[in-house]
Every structure is written in C-alpha cells, then in structure tokens.
C-alpha cells in the first residue's frame, strides 16, 4: 500500500488527546500537523532537531504524518502513563522488584533532582519511617516548601494537616536509599514519604501517585520509551499530548 505524505507546518494545528493502536501501528484518532521533516515509506522513529519523531500511518485514509516527541521551548508536552492494570481491571504495580531497581538506576542517570512529600496528617506528627528518610536525605536537600501541591497532586486539603514538599539532588547515596523499598507505589501514605518524582533541571520527568498506584513520564525521549517498553512499564502507543498544558504545572524552579 502506498502512502500519501503529509507536509507538516510548525506547531500543532488540531486538538489531539491520545495515541491509540491500530493493526500494530501507532495512529492518531484525529490528524494534526507538527514540526518535522518529510518521511520515507515505512513506519519508524526519526531524530529531528534533538527531539523524537514517530511516523504515524492511517490505513483508512492512506495518509501519514509525524508527531514530535521531546522537550522544545513553547511546545506542548507529551505524557506516557505506566501500565498498572490487569485485563480484569485489578490494579497492581508493574514498577516493582528488579524493574523498580532498574527504574531508579535509569532515573538517576537521566535526571538531576528528585522529590518526596512528607505529610503530617491531622497534626499527629510524622511517622518514624518518614523521620528516618528525612534525616538520611537531609544533606541532599536543595529546596523545601509547604504548599499542598506537587506532581500528581495539584491541590489537596485535609483538616489539621501540613505538608513538606522536599526536593533533593541525585547522588549515589540517594539511589541506594530509594532502593530501600521494593516498588514505586511504596512511596505512599500514611507511613512513608509519598509520590516520588524526578526532575531534569526544572522540568518534571516522572511522577507517581503512590496510593493510587499511578505514574508516568513527561516528554519521554526515544531512549525513555525503549526503556519503558523493555521493562514492561508502558508502550509507545500510549503516548498522550497535553492539550490543556496540565503537566507544565508539575515543573519546579530548582535551578535559576
């Protein structure tokens, strides 16, 4: 089957929410344009201007186009959620055991900072486990604030409850401390610091919502996508485009 080639313009021209899978190929539910180069026949991934371009094919219309994935100033972010559901709808954490340890190693190589949230629920004080982690990580702290919002939670309220959102620089010591639990969702209330997130400079790269067993990457690179697929955490076809600029609110000023 031949393919008609789409000559994209700079920026996105139509609204788009998510990628889906059709016949083993990633496609778009609705066409839109994006900044990229012309494509050759076949599906695949192209590098362009430091970003990743996925070539998308429409069997129904015999058309093709590309979507740019990667961080670019003024560009809408993309998001890829982790697989955390079985076919019967049961929730479980795939980022566990050896996969979790690989994830911490990979995140530590790719990122500059990480974040944990310490919550004093109902004024009862921090748990012993929270105090131990906070003391162990204190030498790596770069920023602390009390505003009740962070990646994965953009606003919350609980009576007589206070929050410490703390950001740390990555170091070998931190990596070993983060590996002291056996899964990503272990960073959860009420006993542990919660919602581990990683940052590339000021940009949130990964987030988690421990008690909901949720997580994902923001603006994944081709390298990131391959890591997720190789470890069964996500699929390329699950990439979403952030039309409402929601994930920009996850970013944090850590480097001026």
Summary tags:
256 residues; alpha+beta; 2 domains; eight-stranded antiparallel sheet; four-stranded mixed sheet; 14 strands; 16% helix; 29% strand; disordered N terminus
Report on this model:
The structure is a single chain. With 256 residues, this protein is of the alpha+beta class. The chain has two domains: 4-69, no CATH class; 78-250, no CATH class. 16% of the residues lie in helices and 29% in strands. It is built from four helices and 14 strands. The chain has helices spanning 97-110, 128-137, 172-178, 222-230, and strands at 4-5, 19-22, 25-28, 45-48, 51-58, 63-69, 78-81, 113-120, 141-145, 162-169, 194-200, 203-209, 214-218, 240-241. The strands form three sheets. Strands 9-10-8-11-12-13-7-14 form an eight-stranded antiparallel sheet, with helices on one face. The longest helix is centred in the middle third of the chain and has 14 residues, at 97-110. The radius of gyration is 20 Å and the shape is globular.
């Amino acid at each position: 089957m031949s393919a008609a080639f789409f000559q994209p313009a700079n920026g996105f021209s139509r609204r788009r929410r998510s990628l889906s899978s059709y016949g083993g190929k990633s496609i778009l539910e609705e066409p839109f344009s994006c900044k990229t180069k012309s494509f050759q026949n076949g599906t695949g991934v192209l590098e362009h201007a430091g970003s990743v371009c996925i070539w998308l094919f429409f069997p129904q219309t015999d058309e093709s186009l590309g979507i740019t994935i990667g961080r670019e100033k003024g560009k809408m972010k993309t998001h890829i959620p982790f697989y955390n559901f079985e076919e019967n709808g049961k929730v479980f954490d795939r980022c566990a055991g050896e996969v979790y340890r690989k994830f911490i190693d990979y995140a530590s190589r790719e990122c500059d900072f990480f974040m944990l949230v310490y919550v004093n629920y109902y004024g009862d004080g921090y748990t012993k486990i929270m105090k131990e982690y906070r003391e162990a990580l204190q030498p790596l702290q770069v920023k602390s604030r009390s505003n009740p919002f962070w990646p994965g939670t953009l606003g919350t309220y609980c009576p007589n409850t206070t929050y410490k959102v703390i950001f740390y620089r990555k170091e070998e010591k931190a990596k070993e401390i983060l590996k002291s639990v056996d899964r990503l969702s272990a960073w959860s209330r009420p006993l542990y610091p919660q919602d581990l997130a990683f940052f590339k400079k000021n940009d949130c790269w990964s987030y988690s919502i421990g008690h909901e067993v949720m997580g994902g990457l923001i603006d994944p690179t081709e390298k990131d996508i391959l890591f997720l697929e190789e470890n069964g955490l996500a699929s390329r076809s699950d990439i979403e485009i952030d039309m409402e600029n929601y994930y920009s609110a996850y970013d944090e000023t850590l480097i001026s």
